[in-house]
Write a structure and sequence with these properties.
Chain lengths: 307, 216
């Protein structure tokens, strides 16, 4: 037992009293895991809701539009502030780059004036060829196709509004800000998840390690006391040494030491009484009595027990 | 012998033997041992709940600020000035409610873990307290009978070792008393009995005292 007084803690000896230590620690770890799972479920639900609300809000933030580029035939003009990304509205007029204005709707065919250029006359002549008796004579139209020449198309020139660059920068800055805000929200949600997992693991592992270590500080003195108790059961009342530094149950150990000392005191009282009787018997010449021999055996056993 | 665990801590047991029931007031039998666990676990779970609470508040506040910003833009086009403040106030009170909710949940976490630890450590401290009282009685030379632990108590194996030791010491003390008593009887009957009367009387008193301690 003397060597035990300098006994150092070792990892392999951490589980001295498996039943007590594991039961205590596992129940604590199981309970904290269940609590952390419940807390985590609630936290992630709130985080998801919050992230969704924030993202919806950010997505609805309007950004300034980019003005559309207008094209004109060689002349600079102001561009319509129409978003280039949006399609033209149905029925909107698309500017055409033609030399002549768009032809007006064809007027109703006017009656041919008498004496006008020969188309009408020719028509009349042709109609006369197939005239049928009793029917009015058909009018004939003569089409004169003159050769046409398409004029060369004027080069198209894109015109930039004065604040076009600033508007583009403004638009994309806004879009990038929205994207960054979205990413930040997702990052925040992920951070909550990871912190939750990390703290959950920390709590569970921390409590497991702490539980084993702390119960070891209780199990250590109990182990030591149990060794003394077994010796006392076998009738040996050796010297009791101090606990290790950091051990708990100091008060309990003091109670045990008192008990040990009390039992030793009882043995010593027995020894004193028996020694006195043996001495008196020897002095009276009764040292050879069998009863004195029995007392000697008793004395020897008791003296050995407190060595 | 009375049940030592029925006694008030610090005072000698005086009540007759009865089945001891757990009482709420007796749950902290060994304050130093029990509160050490409770304090550390409370701190650990408190830190975790606070960290999570801070993060979730931050996320919620970001959502509220985003909504408030949108509202500000919208409200510039309308004349309902009070509406924006009303919504902002609602959002702020929602954020505060989340903080309170998180605080309550953290408190619940701490309370449940602490309560569990007090109960678990009580199941360790109870047997230790009981054995402590038996040890003090042994210190006074009293070797009365040992009653079993309560249902649900931990350290049953350890208590079994203690009980075996106590029974062995008690049995051996009884056997020694018997042996000394027999020796006294034989020596009184011997021719030198008269000369040994004084020492034999003293030994007899000692044996009687020993026997009384075995039934104390």
């Amino acid at each position: 037992m003397a060597s035990e007084s300098n006994h150092k803690r070792q990892w392999r000896n951490l589980l001295l009293n498996k039943g007590y230590q594991l039961r205590f620690t596992l129940v604590m770890v199981g309970l904290s895991t269940a609590l952390m799972a419940g807390l985590g479920f609630w936290v992630m639900r709130v985080a998801d809701e919050t992230t969704t609300v924030s993202k919806s809000s950010i997505m609805g933030t309007p950004c300034p539009a980019i003005p559309s580029l207008s094209e004109s035939a060689g002349s600079a003009g102001s561009a319509d502030p129409v978003d280039a990304e949006s399609p033209p509205a149905p029925g909107a007029k698309v500017p055409m780059n033609l030399d002549e204005p768009a032809p007006a709707p064809a007027p109703a065919p006017a009656p041919a004036a008498p004496g006008s250029a020969g188309s009408a006359d020719a028509g009349d002549k042709a109609a006369g060829d197939t005239e049928e008796p009793g029917r009015p004579p058909r009018r004939k139209i003569e089409v004169n196709l003159d050769p046409m020449e398409m004029p060369p198309q004027a080069p198209k020139v894109a015109t930039l509004p004065a604040d076009y660059a600033a508007a583009v920068v403004k638009h994309w800055t806004c879009r990038l800000k929205i994207d960054a805000a979205k990413r930040s929200l997702e990052h925040g949600r992920d951070r909550i998840l990871w912190v939750l997992i990390g703290t959950g693991l920390l709590l569970v592992l921390g409590l497991a390690v702490y539980g084993i270590k702390m119960t070891h500080k209780v199990a250590g003195p109990l182990f030591k006391v149990s060794l003394y108790l077994k010796k006392m059961r076998d009738g040996r009342f050796d010297k009791v040494y101090n606990l290790r530094k950091g051990d708990q149950l100091l008060d309990f150990y003091e109670h045990f030491r008192h008990a040990h000392a009390g039992v030793v005191k009882m043995q010593q009282a027995d020894i004193e009484r028996v020694q006195a009787v043996i001495a008196a018997a020897e002095a009276a010449g009764a040292g050879d009595e069998p009863a004195v021999g029995e007392l000697r055996d008793l004395l020897a056993r008791k003296e050995k027990s407190i060595e | 012998m009375s049940d030592p665990t029925a006694a008030t801590p610090g005072l000698p047991p005086t009540l007759p033997s009865e089945k001891y029931k757990r009482k709420l007031s007796n749950y902290l039998l060994d304050k130093k041992l029990q509160l050490r666990y409770v304090l550390i676990v409370t701190l650990l779970s408190g830190v975790i709940a606070s960290a999570l609470g801070f993060l979730i508040y931050q996320q919620n506040r970001a959502a509220s600020e985003s909504i408030e910003q949108d509202l500000k833009v919208l409200m510039q086009k309308t004349t309902q000035d009070g509406f924006q403040e009303e919504i902002a106030s609602d959002l702020e009170s929602g954020d505060r409610a989340l903080v309170y909710k998180m605080g309550l949940i953290g408190l619940g976490l701490v309370m449940i873990l602490s309560l569990y630890l007090v109960i678990m450590t009580h199941r360790v401290a109870g047997p230790l307290f009981k054995m402590g009282i038996y040890f003090e009685q042994m210190a006074e030379g009293k070797l009365g009978k040992v009653t079993p632990l309560r249902e649900g108590d931990l350290l049953q194996d350890f208590f079994a070792i203690f009980k075996a030791m106590h029974e062995a010491v008690r049995t051996r003390a009884g056997a020694d008393a018997d042996a000394m008593e027999a020796a006294v009887r034989k020596l009184r009957a011997s021719p030198a009995g008269g000369k040994l009367a004084g020492e034999l009387d003293a030994l007899e008193r000692h044996v009687a005292e020993l026997r009384s301690q075995l039934t104390a």
